[in-house]
Amino acid sequence: MSKHVVPLLNRILIKKVNPAAKTKGGVVIPEGWRKKVSKGKVVAVGPGIINTQGKCVPCCLKVGDVVLLPDYGGTKVQYDEKQEYYLYRENDILAKINE
Q: Is residue 37 scored above 60 in pLDDT?
């Protein structure tokens, strides 16, 4: 997928990660709460933005990073029928998760 869709400027292509239905201890997580947790994996990254001095400022994320996403936002991209991807601007992403 990332070979076909290349984000421009500071945009990042994300594949959302489905949260687990159970915790490691075996506690079942309700479906309503699982929808609130919004994590994603970076699939492709744009080259960055051009600042006022004309220099390219690269994105701080790289392919493979796991990130925390806002509840709303992003543009849905469905390149094939099997998988949905989302395009976010770099400044819309809330945090990088170190696992």
A: no
